[in-house]
Design goal:
TIM Barrel; 9 helices; about 35% helix
């Protein structure tokens, strides 16, 4: 898998610049694939294989997944260069490009630098986190490595007023005056659970959306099961049109949190939605 990253020295600091997600891995104009958490009952190697079987071209890894069926080794930013090379070979065999990593947390600058180095070695577009107490550090590293940072949201926690990233308004407040490489990793399913209409969330964060965990749900305002795109109350087509209007260039991850042992057919249906969206758009524009 060829690297798109280049490096140069500026003011005595090594600056790594990452290229955009290439068009050849996009479906309907979007880099849509799987968040490996969808396959968390399996290993990272198997997650790559299942993503390919579902028709994905990209994957977003998460830290701590078991690496291979024949090993108890874990896949994360502490992986050796040898393990990373083997993973890149496995990805290439299955036609999958890694684009993102998270939700990841770093204890300090040393660990966060390991995370960014890991992202650089995999040519990732972004990393995803909820470490909003380290935004000064993340902003500095995002500039140095030219790798984007998306702030992820889980559902609102009524008993924890300090958990603020559930709200797109709060995330926007956190990043609006910072480097444009910092933004939101918008999880539309968790927004729906929190009572936020996903389309309104995307519009509020226009220009600051780094990546999306795209989910369709059967209700807004309560926790419900993920369903294939088009089967729930979220107007996924409208979300894609809004992202297109914004010039969104990040990745869209299918994080399908149901049917854990056999969800490839549903994930394939979600990816098929993008193919249908592309065909419909081509016929009407």
């Amino acid at each position: 898998m060829a690297s798109l990253a280049t490096a140069f020295v500026c003011g005595g600091v090594m600056v790594v610049t990452a290229g955009p997600i290439p068009d050849e891995v996009k479906i309907g104009g979007f880099a849509v694939g799987c968040q490996a958490w969808t396959f968390n009952r399996f290993t990272a190697y198997e997650a790559v294989e299942k993503a390919a079987a579902a028709g994905a071209r990209v994957i977003e890894f998460y830290p701590g997944q078991r690496l291979r069926p024949d090993s108890d080794e874990r896949w994360d930013h502490n992986a050796s260069d040898e393990v990373i090379v083997r993973m890149k070979e496995h990805l290439a065999r299955h036609g999958i490009r890694p684009v993102n990593y998270g939700v990841v947390h770093g204890r300090d600058e040393a660990e966060w630098r390991r995370i960014f180095e890991f992202a650089r070695k995999l040519d990732l577009y972004a990393v995803t986190t909820e470490d909003v107490d380290k935004l000064d550090l993340l902003e500095r590293l995002a500039r140095e490595y030219d790798i984007r940072v998306g702030i992820h949201n889980h559902p609102r926690r009524p008993n924890d007023p300090n958990y603020r990233v559930w709200s797109p308004t709060n995330v926007l407040e956190m990043v609006r005056s910072r480097d444009p490489r910092l933004g939101a990793a918008a999880d539309t399913g968790h927004w729906a659970t929190s009572g936020i209409v996903p389309l309104e969330g995307l519009r509020l964060l226009a220009g600051r959306i780094v990546s999306v965990h795209l989910k369709d749900r059967t209700a807004i305002g309560r926790l419900t099961t993920d369903v294939p795109y088009g089967a729930g109350v979220v107007n996924v087509g409208a979300l894609l049109e809004e992202l297109r209007r914004q010039g969104f260039a990040g990745n869209i991850s299918i994080e399908y949190e149901t049917k854990w042992e056999n969800n490839v057919p549903d994930v394939a249906q979600c990816i098929g939605f993008f193919r249908g969206y592309a065909a419909c758009r081509a016929a009407t524009h």
